[in-house]
Design brief:
CATH topology of one domain: FAD/NAD(P)-binding domain
CATH class of one domain: Alpha Beta
Bound molecules: FE2/S2 (inorganic) cluster
Strand content: 25-35%
Helix content: 10-25%
Radius of gyration: 22 Å
Shape: globular
Distance between the termini: 38 Å
Number of strands: 24
Largest sheet: 9 strands, mixed
CATH architecture of one domain: 3-Layer(bba) Sandwich
Length: 505
């Protein structure tokens, strides 16, 4: 097996400056508090500030370093294969609204880029979903028919600039790609000032709604008329979004490619084991980004192999020899294919959420920022009903039932994991392992220098047992996707507390 060579960091993060916004120091009041500095939060903050509201964006680490900072940054309404299914599931009218709303998201990005002259490698591209085996071809032709029915300018093609044979593809022109951090860091610059704020390294612990909303952080409180919780999966459990979605992990590798041999456009395969392909400007040339090897969190134990398989694919299909980057991402998949955007619960009037983007967060994230700012400004939004976060959802889809069983199984049976291992001596260098010491589940990692990092293995969200992710050297919770560093620090919610220190010597 080849050893991994690419830098283990997102290209978007590596190629842009680190941000240094201040932390919250005193309690303050604003019109709208926005929890989470990703694409939803920064889009909403920009629109609300433009409309005359004072806003405070509160980010637990640095802005655009979470899910948004690890995307493939494609702006497309062609979400692999969705329209034929959506028409069957919710009807033509609502499926058309889905397409239109995502298109509105893309055009909002294009308008910001134009209005503010944002230098973010934004370019119009065609988007393709391609089939390789013949048995996927029907799905492609069905999707073309469905897209055309909805008014999307789709076409069926059998020739693309990919350097391998496909059996057919749906092609949609006039979509776009960009450098997501260059874009959002520009929007972020305009947020502080005139009563508005952007805080980093400030962790929100709870949000309460009374006459005013109160956002409680580890550094003070913020009073606001309205609050948007834009933390991928909401850190507030009341809306039960953790039970209406499941966490999916996917991987990306980046390699320099000869521009003469690079594919033009943005691609994704049609099957479950599909690959995502695009290029981006890089160091005077092009970087090929290949994504894939997605899996539900917790279902793959050797995650490093996912990168190996992606590299093998890139070598095989594009003749790549060396890799510059590798990174992974994790997003929440919605059981009914639609994101949840709107009020947290039917009983909340001023707390809003957006989640369940199912790995297509650029158009949906932007559209969420638009929709939520419209709701707060009291403006009509044609898409609000479709995405209503309090809608009755099909709790009993095959996927949701399976996820429920998985979570219950994990909650019970994971407690027996590591039962036989009860000594730090059993953990090799570079290995993460669950131990049972003094009846306590201990998540233990021994680093390459031999130092042991031991934390409680009980997830601080709802008590599942975390499992080791060897590619990212993190403890991940398969129940609802919380992630923690080897020292127990939160990397990704919904958990808002670090893993506890174990009571062991
Ligand atoms: Fe919910 Fe861990 S993320 S229990």
């Amino acid at each position: 097996m080849n050893s991994l060579t690419g830098k283990p960091i997102s290209f978007w993060i590596d190629s842009t400056p680190k941000t240094t916004y201040p932390s919250l120091e005193n309690s303050i009041s604003v019109d709208v508090a926005i929890v989470g500095g990703g694409i939803v939060g920064l889009t909403a903050a920009t629109l609300l500030k433009r409309a005359g509201k004072t806003v405070a964006v509160i980010e637990s680490k640095q802005i655009v370093t979470g899910v948004t900072g690890h995307t493939t940054a494609k702006l497309t309404v062609l979400h692999q294969l969705i329209y034929a299914d959506l028409i069957k599931q919710i009807g033509e009218e609502k499926a058309r609204l889905y397409a239109e709303s995502n298109l509105a998201g893309i055009e909002r990005v294009a308008a910001f880029v134009e209005e503010e002259q944002i230098d973010c490698d934004f370019s119009r591209q065609s988007s393709y979903t391609f089939a390789e085996p013949d048995d996927e071809l029907d799905k492609i032709t069905d999707e073309v028919k469905a897209a055309l029915k909805l008014g999307l300018p789709a076409a069926f093609v059998q020739e693309t600039s990919l350097p391998f044979k496909i059996t057919g593809a749906i092609k949609l022109d006039n979509q776009a790609q960009f450098h997501v951090r260059k874009y959002l860091l520009h929007l972020a610059k305009n947020i502080p000032g005139n009563g508005s704020h952007l805080f980093e390294n400030t962790r929100v612990e709870k949000v309460e709604e009374d006459n005013l909303c109160q956002v409680v952080t580890d550094r003070g409180s913020i009073n606001a008329q309205d609050v948007i919780v834009a933390t991928n999966l909401p850190i507030l459990d009341q809306g039960l979004f953790f039970a209406k979605t499941y966490p999916e992990r996917s991987y990306i590798v980046g390699a320099r490619i000869d521009p003469a041999k690079a594919p033009q456009g943005m691609y994704i395969g049609s099957g479950e084991a599909s690959h995502s392909i695009r290029t981006t400007p890089y160091d005077g040339g092009l970087l090929l980004l290949v994504g894939g090897e997605g899996h539900k969190v917790g279902t793959v134990t050797n995650t490093e192999e996912c990168y190996q398989k992606l590299e093998d694919y890139a070598r095989d299909r594009f003749g790549i020899e060396t890799f510059e980057y590798r990174w992974s991402n994790q997003d929440m998949v919605s059981f009914d294919k639609l994101p949840y955007i709107g009020k947290l619960t039917p009983f909340n009037h001023h707390i809003y959420v957006a989640t369940g983007f199912s790995l297509w967060g650029m158009s949906k994230g932007t559209m969420s920022g638009m929709l939520l700012s419209d709701l707060i400004l009291g403006k009509e939004n044609f898409y609000a009903e479709l995405y209503d976060a309090t809608r009755a959802t099909p709790f009993l889809t095959p996927q949701s039932v399976k996820q429920g069983i998985d979570v219950a199984t994990r909650w019970v049976s994971d407690r027996f994991k590591g039962l036989q291992s009860n000594s730090f001596a059993e953990v090799a260098k570079g290995e993460g392992k669950l131990l049972t010491i003094d009846k306590e589940k201990v998540a233990t990692y021994r680093d390459e220098q031999g130092t042991i990092h031991a934390v409680s293995a009980v997830c601080t969200h709802l008590g599942c047992i975390v499992s080791w992710n060897n590619a990212e050297k993190s403890w991940d919770c398969a129940c609802h996707g919380s992630r923690f560093s080897c020292d127990g620090k939160i990397i990704q919610g919904p958990a808002v507390k670090d893993l506890e220190m174990p009571n062991v010597d």
